[in-house]
Automatic annotation (TrEMBL):
Name of encoding gene: Jrkl_25
Name of the protein in question: Jerky-like
InterPro entries the UniProt entry points to: CenT-Element_Derived, DDE_SF_endonuclease_dom, Homeodomain-like_sf, HTH_CenpB_DNA-bd_dom
Gene Ontology cellular-component terms listed: nucleus
UniProt-annotated location(s): Nucleus
Keywords from the named record: DNA-binding
Pfam families, alphabetized: DDE_1, HTH_Tnp_Tc5
Species the sequence originates in: Bactrocera latifrons (Malaysian fruit fly)
Example of a GO MF term: DNA binding
Main localization (coarse): nucleus
Record-annotated HTH CENPB-type domain positions: 64-137
């Protein structure tokens, strides 16, 4: 018969035990309450100064930790955590790579030890546990949708495809995509006190792509790109693999969408159905002749 594994109390439970002992609770009562031996309660009381010191040094309290193992680089980690809190106060997203790079910076600046510090994934996990840091998705406004319109649209589209006698290689879908090339991550580490994190103003520097392909994926219309510059310097003396247009905001406009349809899409396809999503033009049908 296997031995019953001993129960280990978390630091939070140990702090609770210390508080109750101070308030006058008996060792026997606390041992029964936590289903541990009386010797465990006595050991907690004996080590209470170290327990409270370790808990108070983590900023975030005891959490779910069960050991007293503290950081080998306490000064560096405290500086790192203060920096982390400042970033969160400014609502800047912080991920693991950023934390590790900043840790190496503080280690080289503070010079707490002479040993090398690589800011490994293992160290990062221990740092997060010591300081109660979690990784969550940044809240954003949910996009509105109208599911009640989906079935009528699908029925109408299928009827039109059947009416025209089209195969899957004649059914095209085009979708507009924005690349915010200065956009920060959408997930961030947060302190244990943060229940969620609000969104922040997005960087607006972007280019827009319009991708279009048929249902079987065998024919891809030339990629269409929209920027802010009328004649980008990088395109000078360069045979671009994409079709390009421009607008003041790098966004799609009705004029540009019509230009794309007549000068990019139409010359590359034959009789087809084009379904357009998130775009200035609604769903429409257009019959043309031509070659792939």
């Amino acid at each position: 018969m296997s031995q019953k594994r001993p129960k280990y109390l978390s630091l939070k439970e140990k702090v609770n035990v210390i508080g109750k002992l101070k308030a006058g609770s008996s060792v026997t009562h606390l041992a029964n309450q936590h289903s541990v031996a009386k010797s465990t309660i006595c050991a907690i009381n004996k080590k209470k100064e170290n327990i409270l010191k370790c808990v108070n040094s983590t900023f975030s309290g005891p959490g779910k930790r069960k050991t007293l193992k503290c950081s080998e680089l306490p000064k560096m980690e405290k500086a790192l955590y203060r920096w982390f809190l400042k970033q969160r106060q400014k609502n800047y997203p912080v991920n693991g790579l950023i934390v590790k790079e900043k840790a190496k910076f503080f280690h080289s600046t503070i010079k707490e030890t002479q040993s090398d510090f690589n800011a490994s994934d293992g160290w990062l996990q221990h740092f997060k546990k010591r300081y109660g840091v979690r990784f969550i998705k940044i809240s954003v406004e949910k996009l509105s949708s109208r599911p009640e319109l989906m079935d009528p649209f699908k029925n109408k589209l299928q009827a039109k495809i059947k009416e025209l006698g089209l195969s899957h290689d004649q059914i095209y879908n085009a979708d507009e995509l924005g690349l915010f090339w200065k956009l920060l991550p959408d997930r961030t580490y947060v302190s244990s006190q943060e229940k969620n994190t609000p969104g922040r103003k997005r960087e607006k520097q972007r280019v827009t792509f319009l991708a279009c392909t048929n249902a079987i994926g065998m024919h891809k219309v030339k990629l269409f790109v929209i920027g802010k510059a009328k004649n980008p310097r990088s395109f000078k003396n360069f045979d671009s693999p994409v079709d390009y247009n421009f607008s003041d905001s790098s966004w799609m406009t009705a004029t540009i969408s019509k230009h794309w349809f007549h000068h990019s899409f139409v010359p590359q396809v034959k009789k087809s159905v084009l379904v357009i999503s998130n775009f200035y033009m609604c769903v429409f049908y257009y019959s043309i002749s031509g070659n792939f």
